[in-house]
Design goal:
Blueprint lengths: L1 E4 L18 E6 L1 H4 L3 E5 L7 E3 L20 E8 L5 E2 L3 H4 L7 E5 L9 H5 L3 E2 L1 H9 L4 E4 L10 H8 L3 E4 L13 E4 L9 E3 L3 E4 L1
Parallel strand pairs: 5-7, 6-8, 7-9, 9-10
Antiparallel strand pairs: 1-13, 2-3, 4-10, 4-12, 5-11, 11-13
């Protein structure tokens, strides 16, 4: 068994989606003076590696803390989609995606994490691919980009309205390309919010 961390580090001033508030992480107690250490975090739930749940962009009132835990774990599948401005569902992809899996899209764009290119020029999923994923009733789709689409966020809405959760801002997906079988664990915080920052981990066997 091997555990592979697919999450970005949370730190003070980390990259955020344009228009979102900055992350503030500060140490408020020091062992030398207070006899213990403590930190304070002010963060948007869509900063860094996180899970989007239906409440984010649909009329759903279900908080992310109310979604069953089994929704955030399952057998994983990774597609190498590097070099594509638009991610389409090629025939060879269809044989790799299993019903009920957690699909990961490796674009290689985590190399640009935090830059203008990362947020402005990332690839997007087309609607035909989105409909295929809905028909396959996958659990989640994750990617090493900030979003599967851009405004008006129709891909977001299509996936989330069908209870397919979205993992954004992943990293290290290249480490899964030669892995025969792996599971994904992407548990959100038990938080009363629309979505949640998450520590996403692959367990390769």
């Amino acid at each position: 068994m091997k555990l592979i961390d697919l999450s970005h580090v949370i730190y003070d001033g980390m990259p955020v989606y344009p228009g979102d508030p900055n992350t503030k992480l500060s140490q408020i107690k020091y062992y030398e003076h207070d006899e213990y250490n403590n930190f304070k975090l002010d963060i948007c739930m869509h900063s860094g590696t996180h899970v989007d749940a239906p409440m984010h962009l649909t009329e759903s009132k279900q908080l992310v803390s109310e979604i069953p835990l089994e929704s955030f774990m399952g057998d994983g599948c990774v597609l190498d989609v590097r070099g594509h401005e638009v991610i389409t569902m090629k025939e060879e992809y269809k044989y790799l995606i299993k019903e009920g899996c957690i699909l990961l899209l490796y674009t290689g764009f985590d190399e640009y994490y935090g830059t203008d290119k990362y947020y402005e020029n990332h690839p997007c999923i087309d609607m035909d691919s989105c409909k295929f994923l809905v028909n396959m009733t996958i659990k989640m789709v994750g990617m090493d980009i900030p979003s599967p689409d851009k405004c008006l966020f129709e891909i977001h809405k299509k996936l989330l309205s069908n209870n397919i959760y979205i993992i954004e801002n992943l990293t290290n997906l290249d480490k899964l390309l030669e892995t025969d079988r792996f599971e994904i664990f992407a548990f959100p915080l038990k938080i009363k919010a629309d979505s949640s920052i998450s520590r996403v981990v692959a367990k390769a066997t």
